[in-house]
Design brief:
Blueprint (H helix, E strand, L loop, with lengths): L14 H14 L1 E4 L5 H15 L3 E5 L6 E6 L3 H20 L3 E3 L5 E6 L3 E5 L8 E9 L12 E7 L4 E9 L5 E4 L5 E4 L7 E11 L5
Antiparallel strand pairs: 1-10, 2-3, 3-5, 3-6, 4-12, 5-12, 6-11, 7-10, 7-12, 8-9, 8-11
């Protein structure tokens, strides 16, 4: 295994660009940064994800609290290296202005394929205050399918329940999504035939919170 190269295109952003990202997260809870991974990092993490897909377990819930369908697999050495050693300092701290610690128990490779979905929810702040989603493999975005799972839909908080749709964000391969999913309601609609998104789902909590 080679060590994944440093991730962030964010290190090349100027102050004005970072300010726009912070504003987007303040208003909508999420911001997608296209082409944020180096080609070496994308290739290495995607290779690891392909290997993990073969052993991924079906994750299905029909609970009224949070229905969902996907496949999940534990992270491998490349993902753990990226998340544990540099993701907070290189990616989260510039955007959120403080350090976070990686939560391995809440992080995994997630595979959404045709028929899979994730209903409207907010993340558990105790182990997933903020999220990084690394989009490692994704079918091409189809603009005619606004309700497709190729999009992430963000909703307003209406008396502690999901309210009006705030924004729909496409999720292209090679992008990194920054998420304040513990504060903002979000949803991935059911993927259509021929669609897929394979991602590294990484959860973080404040570094100031004791273990």
């Amino acid at each position: 295994m080679t060590q994944a190269a440093p991730v962030p295109a964010i290190s090349r952003l100027d102050g004005a660009q970072l300010h726009r990202i912070r504003q987007s997260i303040d208003y909508f809870g999420f911001h997608c940064l296209p082409d944020a991974m180096s080609s070496e990092t994308l290739e290495e993490l995607a290779r690891e994800a392909r290997c993990r897909r073969a052993e991924a377990k079906r994750a299905v819930s029909e609970s009224a609290d949070l229905p969902y369908s996907s496949r999940v697999a534990p992270l491998g050495p490349s993902a753990i290296h990226v998340l544990g050693n540099m993701a907070s300092a290189a990616l989260l701290e510039p955007v959120f202005g403080r350090r976070f610690r990686y939560c391995p128990d809440a992080s995994c490779y997630t595979f959404f394929e045709a028929g899979d979905f994730l209903e409207t929810h907010r993340d558990d702040a105790s182990n997933c205050e903020v999220t990084l989603l690394f989009y490692l493999s994704a079918s091409p975005f189809r603009p005619d399918e606004q309700a497709s799972g190729l999009n992430l839909s963000i909703y307003a908080n209406d008396d502690d329940a999901p309210g009006a749709l705030l924004k729909t964000i496409a999720t292209p391969q090679g992008a990194i999504m920054f998420g304040h999913g513990s504060r903002f309601w979000h949803r991935r609609h059911r993927l259509q035939e021929g669609e897929h998104i394979w991602m590294l789902t990484a959860c973080f909590t404040s570094a100031d919170v004791p273990d």
